[in-house]
Amino acid sequence: MNYQILFCVVFSFSMNGGYSQDELVDLENKSTEFSYEIRYASTNNFIGEVLYDCPICLLRPEVATALLNANKYFCELGYRIKIYDCYRPLDVQKIMWEKVPRATYVANPYGKGSIHNKGAAVDITLETLEGCYVEMGSDYDYFGRESHIDNLNFSEEILSNRKILIEVMKKCGFITVRTEWWHFSFRKNRSFKTLNIPLPCSN
What CATH number labels 27-186? Predict the structure, then answer.
């Protein structure tokens, strides 16, 4: 697939009116151009338990801006971002670690924790603008070699899909982790503190 990676130009949007406690904003209030499948608000995840009381994507304002920029350019390429996870309370990270204490795939909450706990990381994939599935070689949160970004044992289509996802996200201020093709941390996250505030669910 031929495509042109476009450089991100920051565009402004209002940060007022969203969830603002501890500098977090609700992405759904900022754009309707994303697709959502918040897996930890369901049992369709690697633990098989509901970990979130509601399906919501909270992020630091800077991270939300960068993700909006990325989605803008994905849309120009015929795709949109589908979101699996955003901010994750530290208590949820502890539950994950108790179930799967494997630092290769689950960040140790008693060490540095996860960038998700700072509201500065997203787990995402791509889908077409019509909502069709884009093949990435494994399911989300699959713990195995198929999820590693340095695994090139895939078809040209899958490698191309991963390349589009990774290169645009990098251009827009995110970095990858080797073992998870879906995970992107905001590059400038060092000044953000780890949070354990509950998700603002109405029920």
Answer: 3.30.1380.10
